[in-house]
């Protein structure tokens, strides 16, 4: 697609990228967003490819780490959900660590993440990762300046060490504009069933949008390394962001179709056995 230049972004904008021309009317609506019909067909195709990639990772014994970072509402959880929807949780698993315990706070910072790293034949999706330190923790004042500086020195070396040991590290940053983030927060606030998603941390993050931009820029300055570069996913259009991210993830592997052939289902083995009366069991009410 051809990029069209725009005027400079306002101070504190997260990521400013030229917007692509939506020149495929069969794909995009009048607002320039992906049509649901096109998205549904494409996500189904990509999910089939993710299953093939899963078999390939198993067969080759690969160890894959995929990191998803970015602002609240940027769409990290949505793309992770679509990746795992059809794949096996034994091969493709999610690591979404909670707040560290008192004991974990005394450990080497990376220690609690190490135990979630993949073994051979696994892909681990980190829904936020060790980059909490240079983003959320730094912005909210949950770490000291010294801890922040040490992280920026150590993270590149930690990732280079992982790569040298055979771990494939892929890092995605989901970028959402201030206006779109506000719209999504307002949508959550308007619906009681979604209001639980709007936390005090989210409100603080929205207020500190510019400081989060500073955190992201500093993080990239130190950790956008050749062995494990950052890939930015513009996500004001959530559906497009999912397709773009999954397509890029698949492109990182020269995989082939090693899916197993259909098996022959065995017949039931007969044996003398009399089951107890079905009336002795308690069933849920048949409302539907």
TrEMBL record:
<dbReference type="GO" id="GO:0008976">
    <property type="term" value="F:polyphosphate kinase activity"/>
</dbReference>
<dbReference type="GO" id="GO:0006793">
    <property type="term" value="P:phosphorus metabolic process"/>
</dbReference>
<dbReference type="InterPro" id="IPR027417">
    <property type="entry name" value="P-loop_NTPase"/>
</dbReference>
<comment type="function">
    <text>Uses inorganic polyphosphate (polyP) as a donor to convert GDP to GTP or ADP to ATP.</text>
</comment>
<dbReference type="Pfam" id="PF03976">
    <property type="entry name" value="PPK2"/>
</dbReference>
<dbReference type="InterPro" id="IPR022486">
    <property type="entry name" value="PPK2_PA0141"/>
</dbReference>
<feature type="domain" description="Polyphosphate kinase-2-related">
    <location>
        <begin position="37"/>
        <end position="258"/>
    </location>
</feature>
<dbReference type="InterPro" id="IPR016898">
    <property type="entry name" value="Polyphosphate_phosphotransfera"/>
</dbReference>
<feature type="region of interest" description="Disordered">
    <location>
        <begin position="1"/>
        <end position="21"/>
    </location>
</feature>
<comment type="subunit">
    <text>Homotetramer.</text>
</comment>
<dbReference type="InterPro" id="IPR022488">
    <property type="entry name" value="PPK2-related"/>
</dbReference>
<comment type="similarity">
    <text>Belongs to the polyphosphate kinase 2 (PPK2) family. Class I subfamily.</text>
</comment>
<keyword id="KW-0808">Transferase</keyword>
<keyword id="KW-0418">Kinase</keyword>
<protein>
    <recommendedName>
        <fullName>ADP/GDP-polyphosphate phosphotransferase</fullName>
        <ecNumber>2.7.4.-</ecNumber>
    </recommendedName>
</protein>
């Amino acid at each position: 697609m051809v990029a069209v230049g725009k005027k400079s972004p306002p101070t504190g904008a997260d990521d400013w990228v030229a917007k692509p021309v939506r020149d495929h009317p069969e794909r995009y609506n009048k607002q320039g967003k992906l049509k649901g019909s096109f998205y549904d067909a494409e996500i189904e195709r990509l999910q089939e490819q993710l299953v093939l990639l899963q078999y390939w990772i198993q067969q080759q014994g690969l160890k894959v780490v995929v990191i998803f970072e970015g602002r609240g509402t940027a769409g990290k959880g949505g793309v992770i959900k679509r990746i795992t929807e059809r794949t096996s949780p034994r091969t493709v698993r999610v690591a979404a660590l909670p707040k560290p315990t008192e004991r974990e706070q005394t450990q080497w910072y990376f220690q609690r993440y190490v135990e979630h790293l993949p073994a051979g034949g696994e892909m681990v999706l980190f829904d936020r990762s060790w980059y909490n330190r240079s983003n959320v923790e730094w912005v909210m004042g949950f770490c000291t300046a010294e801890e922040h500086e040490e992280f920026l020195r150590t993270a590149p070396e930690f990732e280079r060490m992982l790569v040298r040991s055979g771990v494939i590290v892929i890092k995605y940053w989901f970028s959402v504009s201030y206006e779109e983030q506000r719209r999504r927060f307002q949508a959550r606030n308007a619906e009681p069933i979604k209001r639980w998603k709007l936390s005090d941390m989210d409100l603080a993050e929205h207020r500190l949008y510019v400081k989060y931009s500073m955190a992201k820029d500093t993080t990239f300055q130190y950790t956008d390394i050749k062995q494990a570069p950052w890939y930015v996913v513009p996500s004001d259009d959530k559906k497009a962001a999912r397709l773009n991210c999954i397509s890029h993830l698949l492109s990182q592997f020269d995989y082939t179709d090693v899916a197993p052939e259909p098996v022959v289902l065995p017949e039931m083995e007969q044996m003398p056995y009399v089951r107890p009366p079905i009336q002795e069991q308690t069933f849920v009410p048949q409302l539907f």
